[in-house]
Amino acid sequence: MKVSDFLKEYNVKLLKGLGQNFLTNTHIAKKIVERADINENDVVLEIGPGAGTLTEFLVLTGAKIIAVEIDKRLKPILERFNKYDNIEIIFVDFLKFDVSVLPKGFKVVANIPYSITGMILKKILFSDFSKAVLMVQKEVGDRLLLPPGADRNFLSVVVQSYTMVRKVFDVSKGNFVPRPKVDSVVLEFEKTEDFKYDIKEFWDFVSKCFGAKRKTLQNNLKRFTRIECFSKFDLKKRPQELENEEFLELFETFKGCK
Ligand SMILES: C[S@@+](CC[C@H](N)C(=O)[O-])C[C@H]1O[C@@H](n2cnc3c(N)ncnc32)[C@H](O)[C@@H]1O
């Protein structure tokens, strides 16, 4: 059955506030799932299965699928997966879901609700995931990939420092119901083994460095640390101009500066 048929049959009106633009193109869903390179020993988290377009392909991989959906109205539509024993659908707000119950190295595949992208990324990055294939709003995804000098934000720095992040493909508005105002992009994040810091501390540090993006590093740093420690850096630069490696050096210096 098509997504629109499910919605009609179960009389579900999609809610903008929950980012409910459901993917209708099954070729795209298949390609997203293939990109995650899933085998039957994997545990895969899906955030927001919606009407189950991605879930259909996830469940066929034979991996253990944990799908976390906030909207209980979708229960009757998702009940068709009850016939599989490798899927568990949990109706709860993902932001309140305890990801520590998932085994180390779990994967994430999701077309996420765009209004909470930052919070979802934070939760994934702070978890024991190994790889995530996520559809996000195109503008947000493209910004995550920006190199130094461009209009990037603290999330671009954190994500590029902590993971190998790559663009998979663009997805245009016409592939969803209802049709959203924005285009989308699928990104792949692979955790790198060589990041030697505490990701939570690094996230906090980079976010503070970008506190006032238009201001110099000096002006940002002096609000929360002793500026004398950073004499070897060019603090006249703005945070978005720094190379990722420079941010790591800056963080190293910050840690030694307390
Ligand atoms: C963009 S839709 C994607 C639906 C489906 N995966 C697809 O690709 O068609 C986002 C989904 O996330 C769900 N959602 C929104 N906020 C959520 C939250 N905090 N926790 C879990 N699911 C959420 C929505 O109800 C919706 O099903």
UniProtKB/TrEMBL annotation:
Looking up PROSITE patterns in the UniProt record yields:
RRNA_A_DIMETH, SAM_RNA_A_N6_MT
The alphabetical list of record keywords is: Cytoplasm, Methyltransferase, RNA-binding, rRNA processing, S-adenosyl-L-methionine, Transferase
UniProt protein name: Ribosomal RNA small subunit methyltransferase A
- Function recorded in the entry: Specifically dimethylates two adjacent adenosines (A1518 and A1519) in the loop of a conserved hairpin near the 3'-end of 16S rRNA in the 30S particle. May play a critical role in biogenesis of 30S subunits.
Q: SUPFAM superfamilies per the record? A: S-adenosyl-L-methionine-dependent methyltransferases (SSF53335)
Q: What family, per the record?
A: Belongs to the class I-like SAM-binding methyltransferase superfamily. rRNA adenine N(6)-methyltransferase family. RsmA subfamily.
The record places domain Ribosomal RNA adenine methylase transferase N-terminal at 28-193
Which reaction equation describes what this protein catalyses? adenosine(1518)/adenosine(1519) in 16S rRNA + 4 S-adenosyl-L-methionine = N(6)-dimethyladenosine(1518)/N(6)-dimethyladenosine(1519) in 16S rRNA + 4 S-adenosyl-L-homocysteine + 4 H(+)
NCBIfam families (UniProt xref):
ksgA (TIGR00755)
Q: Name one Pfam family in it.
A: RrnaAD
- At which positions is S-adenosyl-L-methionine bound? N21, L23, G48, E69, D93, N111
Q: Does the keyword Magnesium apply?
A: no
